[in-house]
Amino acid sequence: CSLIPCAIIFFLGENISFTNRLTLLAIILILSFISLNINFEENGIENKDPSFVVIDEFAGMWISLIVSDQLFLLIMSFLLFRFFDITKFLGINKIEKLNGSLGIMLDDIVAGIYTLIIVFFIKLFLV
């Protein structure tokens, strides 16, 4: 699911302003938390990250792409986000253990924020 935001930015990135990217992020996050909370309450899902939940990956990846306006930055965002998401490096593993939708969403959000910070500095100093 991480590739979908990459494809959106790759094909439509020039037409999506920074402000619109932030607005879309806010909408994605709000809808994600609401839908996950409803799903948890209705189905009694406990502290785990079900494989059918992919909105967390989408939201985290979208965060990492906020400043990615070139193919190189897009690729770096994808690779770094996947690195943080898989390794659960720098405390992400502790965040993932939070109960319910909070843990499911926040581990990917933090992975996206870590990625965004690194990509921002790559863009600032190298590109």
Description:
With 127 residues, the protein is an all-alpha fold. It has six helices and no strands. It has helices spanning 3-12, 18-43, 55-64, 71-87, 92-96, 100-125. Helix 1 (3-12) runs antiparallel to helix 4 (71-87), helix 2 (18-43) runs antiparallel to helix 3 (55-64) and helix 2 runs antiparallel to helix 6. The longest helix is centred in the first third of the chain and has 26 residues, at 18-43. It is globular, with a radius of gyration of 15 Å. The relative contact order is 0.18. The model has no long low-confidence stretch (mean pLDDT 81).
Summarize, please.
By secondary structure, the protein is mainly alpha-helical. The chain has helices at 3-12, 18-43, 55-64, 71-87, 92-96, 100-125.
